[in-house]
Amino acid sequence: MWADLILSIPFVYVITLIGLVIGIVINAAVYKLIVFLAKGDATFQQLFSGVLYITVTSLNAFIRMSGPWHAVFANIDLFVIWNLVLTDFLLIKVGRTSPKISWIIVTVCYVLSLIFQYVGTTITINMSLSWG
Predict the structure, then answer these.
(1) Alpha helices of the chain — where are they, by DSSP H?
(2) In 3D, which of 55, 105, 100 has the Cα closest to residue 80?
(3) Model confidence over 110-129: pLDDT tens digits?
(4) How far apart are CA 118 and CA 112, in angstroms?
(5) HSE (CB half, 13 Å, CA atoms) of 103?
(6) How far is Cα 122 from Cα 120, in angstroms, rounded to an integer?
(7) Among 40, 60, 100, 115, which one has the highest count of C-beta atoms within 10 angstroms of its own C-beta?
(8) How far apart are CA 44 and CA 65, in angstroms?
(9) pTM for this structure?
């Protein structure tokens, strides 16, 4: 089914860029909710700016592996760890949350993301295999 789709390279770039922006907006909104629940204060624009900075420092897209472990191993590298540190500082400095709460939130979100990435990739691979 997917092999029949022929998309132009510019179209793929535009869709990828739109997806990236939507992802950054969603990520900033989640951080805004976390900051609100942790009784911190930061504007959406501050968090959006921080998320944008954190996102463009990640090079995990360049790591190539196959299978469901690709998503997991792609997030165990120096740049993802730096991303976590910057996210923690974002929550502490901009969101004005406590360092302990911030590190717990960042760690739990990271572990959950690894689990979801593995499960999501496994499901995607199984669906693509079943579609032939």
Answers:
(1) 9-37, 44-56, 69-73, 78-89, 99-131
(2) 55
(3) 999 889 888 888 887 777 77
(4) 10
(5) 2
(6) 5
(7) 40
(8) 35
(9) 0.55
